């Protein structure tokens, strides 16, 4: 009887030790899996930020190219106070002898569409200039 009790006690201790070892290993694996998930999530966020930066750089390069094209296109006597790029909308605020001529010139830029006045043109007769606010839609380039 003692041998049977001793055997049962040894079996119980062995089973308990095995269970404890297995549970600790499971907890360790769970912790490792959680850490791996967190690392993958951080990596995915970093990748998304990098893609966003790539897109912003491509758009900035396109806007810079269009700005250069507009500078070469606009005649002397026309100057811009602001170039505002908000998503695909470009707004130009400036002065010139003829705001209508500016819109006609901008309509020839292939990267711009829907060129129109965004507010009424104000004429300053003392200086023979018009203040204008023109908006246009920036067309996606071939790289987008």
General description of the model:
This protein has 144 residues and is α+β, with helices and mostly antiparallel strands. It has one domain (2-138): 2-Layer Sandwich (Gyrase A, domain 2). Helix content is 56%, strand content 24%. The protein has two helices and five strands; from the N terminus they run αββαβββ. Strands 1, 2, 3, 4 and 5 form a five-stranded antiparallel beta sheet that branches. β4 (122-124) and β5 (129-138) form a beta hairpin. It is rod-shaped. 10% of the residues are buried. The mean pLDDT is 82.
The gyration radius over C-alpha positions equals 35 Å
Number of helices: 2
Q: Runs with pLDDT <50, length 5+? A: none
Number of strands: 5
Which word captures the global form?
rod-shaped
Beta-strand residue fraction: 15-25%
Q: Determine the fraction of residues in helical runs and give it as a percent range.
A: 55-70%
**Helix and strand sequence:** HEEHEEE
Largest sheet: 5 strands, antiparallel
Structural class: alpha+beta
Please report the distance between the alpha carbons of the first and last residues.
84 Å
The assigned CATH architecture is 2-Layer Sandwich
Instruction: Give the count of structural domains.
Output: 1
Average pLDDT number = 82
Q: What is the CATH level 1 assignment?
A: Alpha Beta
Q: CATH H level: which superfamily?
A: General secretion pathway protein M, EpsM
Could you name the CATH topology? Answer: Gyrase A, domain 2
């Amino acid at each position: 009887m003692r041998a049977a009790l001793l055997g049962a006690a040894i079996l119980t201790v062995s089973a308990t030790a095995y269970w404890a070892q297995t549970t600790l290993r499971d907890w360790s694996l769970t912790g490792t899996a959680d850490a791996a998930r967190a690392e993958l999530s951080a990596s995915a966020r970093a990748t998304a930020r990098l893609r966003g930066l790539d897109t912003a750089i491509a758009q900035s390069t396109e806007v810079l190219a269009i700005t250069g094209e507009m500078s070469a296109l606009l005649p002397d006597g026309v100057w811009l106070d602001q170039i505002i790029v908000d998503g695909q909308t470009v707004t130009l605020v400036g002065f010139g002898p003829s705001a209508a001529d500016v819109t006609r010139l901008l309509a020839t830029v292939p990267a711009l569409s829907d060129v129109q006045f965004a507010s009424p043109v104000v004429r300053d007769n003392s200086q023979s200039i018009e203040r204008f606010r023109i908006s246009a839609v920036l067309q996606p380039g071939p790289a987008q």
